[in-house]
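Blackboard transcription, Thursday session:
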Amino acid sequence: MDELVVIIPALAGIIAYFIRGNFTRYIPFLTAIIQSIITAYICIEPNQMILLKNYIFITPLGKIVLALISLLFLMVSYYSIDYLKNSHYESEHIYSSMLLFFVSAMSLTAISDHIILTWIAIEATTISSAPLIFLHKTKDSIVATWKYLITCSVGISLALLGSFIILQSISQPEQISGLLFSNLMAYTGAINPMWFLIGFVFILIGYGTKVGLAPMHIWLSDAHGEAPSPASALLSGALLNCAFLPIYKFDTVAGHFGLGEITNSMMITLGLFSVFVAAAFMPVQKDYKRLLAYSSIENMGIITLGAGIGGIAFLGSIFHMINHSLIKCALFLATGNMLLQYGTKEISNITNFFKILPKTAFAFTLGAIGITGFPPLGLFLSELLIIFGAFAGHHYIVGLLLIIGLILVIAGFSKKIISICYSKSKEYKVVKPLKESFGLYGPSLILLFLSFIITILMFSPYQEYVLNFLLH
Amino acid sequence: MIEILYYQKLIIALIIGTVLFALYTHRLFSLVKIIALQSFLVSTLTIVLGGGEITTYGLIIAISTLVIRSFFIPSFLIYTTRRGNLKRELNPLIGYKASLFFGLIVISILYIWSGYLDFDISKKLLFIGGMALIIPALFLLMARKKAITQVSSYLMLENGISIVGLMIGKNMQYVVEFGILLDVLICVMLMTILINQINKLYSPNEYRK
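(Written on the board underneath:)
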């Protein structure tokens, strides 16, 4: 019953919508515990008990994405309990139920093997997360939601068109019984390479919109900035990976038909471009949540780039995906506390950070160091693997450009982070200091600690177990 | 077989006519209505292509698709247009005559391109018909400013994509097709809710004061 990871959150979402009162804020956490147990079972023995075999098959990367979704959801839902206590939303039931639907749709993306069902699931993530962005009901949030809905819906429609064109490129469609990725991989007949490549371009543009690859990234910074922080954490940490999954699957199919070189170079180009776009926009950001959103664009660019290069860089990009999710989620959860305390998203208004919110400040600074790619957290290792992979695969210019891009990103990002952490003012008086309960800072620290543990394990004798889990 | 092809040609010609009308109109009401007609034609095309082989189950799904596509979804838009008292598109980025000209150019290029495609005639028609919707829809999305027009162009885009999707034929399960429609339905519902909120937040009373 691997489908339960989708069904249980969806049912809980329906229940949460109709329940009023404070209890709604506990429903996501209870669901997250159940979902994590099922996910753990799936990770140990994938594809043992699937009912809908015509639609669902769990690939190794899908397993990782599913595990990340469940872990982040567990942390985010635990954080949400204390966050909602402090933030006083009018419509808590909408928040809880939409969060649950969102997780349900993302889980479906992770486990689906059907080409069109994957598309339906990704569109469902757009639909279920749009009300989360609109939760504040301000003018800015309405603009962000509209941008998100229109850009993502239109973008993903193009992905559907791409899927149809790719299916059309198959010369003997009667050989394929259902529209499954695994059937495409088993297909040995001829294809029309030009149609396949045209379809792949649409796939890359379509799902790339949702991944946040430049130049289709325009929705991302607004949506991440306006959503409540726990929702931003899931948007950035889990959703972007989900949207990357179909791109990777189609890339594998292209490799199967001997077109891998062309599709890989498309992915490398878009990935590099995203890194540079993020590097260009980071230094001018005035809003710390938007700053983190641009960092997501950069990191998704690196993941796409690594998957395009392949080999050891692909391993690096899997690591990058895991560590980016953990660290970015931790950072967004920390920004939630900042927003509760300071009531503003302006970087210049954050003063005396370490005095007012010591534990959050610690988590935020550690996460910020990690996200720029410094040791001891995992992004250091994964970026190193991708750069090594680029040079090993004779992509010398790509490797060099990536290094330049990363230097620019570090320069822009750390300037902003230093101004957040160390700006002091004597005039600032805290009206009502926020009590930092464990629920508010614990999840961030746990996520950062996990990223640290994974990195340590990679340098230990248990390395083989980690690799075995990741690649099989 | 020849009869099916005849009806297919007829329906696709009508659909292309609706595209040209949508490009030229400046009244939001007529835009929404023409999109509803277009959706109706696209759903009919699905049934026509099924021909005599369509099963009862398939027919039920096809008819419910038709109802949702051409009555449910447009009625949301019409309700929103009435409620927000929106009448016409003002100051489009690209004028109506230029848009119409663009549409004609796209159709003629597609006609020339169809000579080079190596599909059979039925698939060729579907591909060209779909593309004749998709490209103008993307154009409309960029050229117009009103939210209603953007939603209408999104629907036009979806119509175009479902025409291209008909090329896949029997491999496409009905359940999946219905899933796509459900997604579009909820998406449009959300968009109309948002348009109502926009009308509330940016009400003209603010400017009058």
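Lecturer's comment: Residues 312-342 of chain A form the longest helix (31 residues).
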